[in-house]
């Protein structure tokens, strides 16, 4: 395997030494271009109680092209499809080599807080969002409860069971 570019090493070190609040990105032991990511749902969003698993991969031509990112946790969101693919401008046409992994992850977290049904990837969800936003938000909350391990559960200790 080719040596990892200095840029990827620096970005990885910064993610570890100066983590983004509510986001973790840990490189895989097998492939340092592949990251296991968790993003906490933003407060005051339908996703606020959830912790979402994602995968991020840095292709060989990174940073000249965008990282590949997708949700592994099932989510009800107009800009994220059933396969976990994300419709986000900085992952497509607005990618710039000046952007970094942390910037992309912050943009994804912001997208959770501001769904955009006018630029959908999941057309059915976008239609629901446009026709009855209140109901769509309720479904998003239910899916978050069901599929995204909640922050409360993730931080609860299991020592009570040893009584």
TrEMBL record:
Top class in the EC scheme: transferase
First and last residue of the signal peptide: none
Keywords: ATP-binding, Nucleotide-binding, Transferase, Ubl conjugation pathway
Domain UBC core: 3-149
SMART domains from the UniProt entry: UBCc
Residues annotated as catalytic: 87 (glycyl thioester intermediate)
GO function terms (MF aspect): ATP binding; ubiquitin conjugating enzyme activity
Taxonomic superkingdom: Eukaryota
EC numbers on record: 2.3.2.23
Family: Belongs to the ubiquitin-conjugating enzyme family.
Protein name, per record: E2 ubiquitin-conjugating enzyme
Origin species: Scheffersomyces spartinae
């Amino acid at each position: 395997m080719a040596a990892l570019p200095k840029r990827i090493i620096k970005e990885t070190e910064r993610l570890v030494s100066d983590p983004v609040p509510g986001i973790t990105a840990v490189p895989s032991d097998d492939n340092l271009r592949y990251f296991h990511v968790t993003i906490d749902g933003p407060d005051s969003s339908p996703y606020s109680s959830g912790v979402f698993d994602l995968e991020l991969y840095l292709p060989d031509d990174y940073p000249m092209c965008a990282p590949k990112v997708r949700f592994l946790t099932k989510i009800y969101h107009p800009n994220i499809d059933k396969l976990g693919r994300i419709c986000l401008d900085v992952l497509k046409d607005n990618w710039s080599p000046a952007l970094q992994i942390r910037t992309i992850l912050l943009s994804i977290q912001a997208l959770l807080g501001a769904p955009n049904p006018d630029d959908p990837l999941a057309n059915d969800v976008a239609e629901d969002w446009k026709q009855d936003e209140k109901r769509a938000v309720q479904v998003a909350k239910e899916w978050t409860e069901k599929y995204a391990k909640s922050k409360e559960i993730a931080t609860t200790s299991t020592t009570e069971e040893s009584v």
